[in-house]
Write a structure and sequence with these properties.
Length: 274
């Protein structure tokens, strides 16, 4: 629990957002149930199936990984050559990896045949993206509490994501600004283009709906490399895939992702770590 006045204020605001998310969840599912039998006809899906194959998935993954590794290795070499070490090196190298993955994804969109049908962000996402963020808070926080209790019960060490540890140990304002931009801008853009607009939509055209949702969400959780955060991240991947499927606009999960990351950063800066 927070002990400082600032921490208590932000904890109170977080509680209000969680309660707001509960209200939205209740209205969403109640409204869906009440209109289920009154729709005159089935509307066309907001997210049409994308007819791709295994080679397309392999190509996207290969380009993304190659771009991330190339930018990371190159960036690390250049930064070490100018004598940069420690936290600054780790943060900038992490940004290089994200940027490289984004470049790899953009190369797929630009230079492949199926990439021409890749979904791009569109207007009209603010309300849906904000609502998706708020509705994600109650289930994700509840799962996080239960998962941490389970890990404690079995004596499993609760590791933190590397970027969270860096946030807690950084007092350099320019570096902190870069980390916030990485968490709230670059990461949501890159990861939603790869995991929702890319992998989820590709899988959605080849396997069952829930297989595509669960597989892309599990991969999203795995790449963050934290056992303590894996269930919450996988659940977020499911929620954001459902929001993308429902709206057909990749900008919706991008905004929800950005708000979630920014919310996490604010809580860390306010001294609320769990």
């Amino acid at each position: 629990m927070p002990t400082t006045p600032v921490g208590k204020v932000f904890a109170g605001l977080e509680l209000l957002m969680v309660l707001g998310g509960l209200v939205l969840l209740w209205r969403h599912f109640l409204g869906a149930r009440s209109t289920r039998d009154t729709r005159p006809a089935a509307a066309p899906p907001a997210l049409p199936r994308w007819r791709t194959g295994g080679l397309d998935i392999a190509t996207l993954v290969w380009l993304v990984l190659c771009g991330g590794i190339l930018f990371q290795v190159t960036g690390m070499g250049l930064l070490r050559a100018i004598g940069l070490e420690g936290t600054r090196l780790l943060v900038i190298v992490s940004a290089c990896f994200q940027l490289g993955m984004l470049v790899g994804c953009l190369c797929y969109m630009r230079f492949t045949t199926t990439g021409r049908d890749y979904d791009r962000p569109r207007k009209g996402f603010l309300l849906a993206g904000t609502a998706t963020f708020l509705m994600s808070l109650p289930p994700v926080f509840s799962l996080g509490i239960g998962w941490q209790a389970l890990m404690n019960l079995f004596g499993i060490p609760i590791d933190q994501q590397e970027m969270i540890a860096l946030f807690k140990n950084t007092d350099n304002l320019p570096l902190l600004g870069l980390m916030i931009a990485l968490a709230a801008l670059l990461a949501p853009l890159t990861e939603e283009l790869i995991f929702r607009a890319g992998l989820f939509r590709m899988l959605h055209g080849q396997v069952s709906r829930w297989s595509a949702i669960l597989l892309s969400a599990a991969l999203f959780g795995v790449i963050h490399g934290s056992l303590a955060s894996f269930p919450q991240l996988a659940l977020l991947g499911i929620i954001w895939a459902l929001a993308y499927e429902r709206t057909g606009n990749i900008a919706v999960p991008m905004l929800a992702h950005a708000l979630y990351n920014l919310n996490t950063v604010i809580l860390l800066l306010a001294g609320i770590e769990s």
